[in-house]
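Ticket #4471: complex job returned nothing on first submit. Input attached below:
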Amino acid sequence: MLLEVEGLCVNYGHIEAIRDITFGVEEGTVTTLIGANGAGKTTTLKTLSGLRKVRAGKVIFDGTDITDMSPEKRVKMGLSQSPEGRGVFPGMTVRENLDMGGFVRRDKAGLAADLDRVMALFPRLNERISQVAGTMSGGEQQMLAIGRALMARPRVVLLDEPSMGLAPKLIQQIFAIIKEINEQGTTVLLVEQNAAQALKAADQAHVLETGELVRSGTGAELAGDDSVRAAYLGGDL
Amino acid sequence: MAKDSSETKVKKDRRGFGEKYAAAPTPVKVVAVTLLLVLVYALPLLRPPILTTNSIDFGTVMFRVIAFALVALGLNIVIGYAGLLDLGYVGFYAIGAYTTAVLTVYHYSWPFFLALPAAIVVTMISGVLLGAPTLRVRGDYLAIVTLGFGEIIRITVQNVEWVGASAGIKDIPHPTGIGAKPNPPFDQGGLFQVPRLQWDGFVPIVDLEHKTSFLAFGSRDAVPYYWLILTFLLLILIGDRMIKASRVGRAWEATREDEDAAELMGVPTFKYKLMAFALGAAIGGMSGSFYASSQAGYINPQSFPLLLSMLFVATVVVGGSGNRWGAIAGGALVAYLPERFRDFADYRLLAFGLALTVLAVWRPEGLFPPRRTRRAKAAEAEIDALEEGTENEEVTHA
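Support reply: We reran it on our side without changes. The output follows.
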């Protein structure tokens, strides 16, 4: 397992946001966490990146316990995240945003290579390289957020609802890119409300409900599961 | 294609003064900068009509202008770069002034040029001490905590005998000059002497009676102090430019724009905020140190009212938060206008308030907004133009 979560509990004050969740992310796979609004998906990702304090449980990355490690060190170890919504730096240009993605790195040659890689993945960003991020469309901002996360050259990239607020055509495109990123060797942990797409893309899938993991399996298994279909895939529609 | 060309056109129009300057050939730059520097240094001696104040010594006003510009430059790091609203900046100014006063006269008798770095270090440490516990809170809370800090400093010095209590500290020595006569008013001698201009209407006359001594700091002539603080301002300006262009500057920008996203990029935001706070404090302390040892050589708790903090924030906002040149212009304006309006006597502050209001309405983004503010404005226009356009590929979510 590249990333292991053991008995993780996170609180916001007295409210338990996530309770005793355990799952793993196998190297080279796409793993997804699906669930409704407020199920604790974003909290889980923020905790994995070190932005939230853990009440109990452990996070292990590549054999190292990173539960109390600073976000900075986690990025350096190869764990980076594309945040929820439009988490780009709105006043910076596309290029400046991408440079921020490589903030912890000092290897100029490697950064240049990764910039080329991101440009190849997202030709749209190349066209808009000097445009201010806040002026781009939702889809472009999402691409930028993913591209920026890749600039850290992560071993596992955490994607928080990349399809949120996008038109169906764009969602397809984003998922195709996620697949490509994975095929290039980056492990992906994907958090989604769009269960249909996420399950299709995922090797492993977990369902979060009010802070607890209620179901796990391969993407295909969960896509075929009646209760999952009823709750997240709109029944038989 | 057509769209692309229209975009570059917009960009051209958006080009700031800085970018135009950067495009100029090197010899032009050297000449322009040299001329500008000579002009700025000579300003209190040239005493240009209209600009010159009548009822108060122009050199003194110019010293104040630069002191405010220095403060603005420091506070601009805190507010403009790191996005931390510090409403108690006067506290650092006071700490710098009092450290200097205590070290040079009240308890010790260090020379000014030793007390100055000490004051900078002490204010930097006080910045870290205030920042370490408070920079973990965000936004409004920080404003309130810093507001309290400014008042705590003032009330503390008012009540502590060790720093002179409400009587303040007097006879703070002037900076040590070179070749200055060692007896009051100390401003005779110096390395050499420079005459000033006297204006008869718009006709300049060289005034050989009143000469300014270079590097002699006395109680009559403010111009040597102006030169001294201006030199430090320029040094800070160079440092500011370097740090803004560095990794640190980028980390500040990211933190200000989206703190969580910055953390996700591996920016230790707390560390960088603390650094901005401490650097800003140090520059405020430096300015306070100059203030303490200026001509009057006297400080008391009333020299550091809460209002001064507000004026400091005004310098940054008026100038265009985040732009060093804006900060300097804002500082200069906030210091200069009340002196210029002295002819209005009791209505002086009213006129000053009106001027600030007019400015706020006329240029809400400040006199010289930074590139990002100009970008945001242009972006707004662009989005408005696109509103009914073809780019509506996203489903609007509530």
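The first helix of chain A runs from residue 41 to 49. Closing as resolved unless it happens again.
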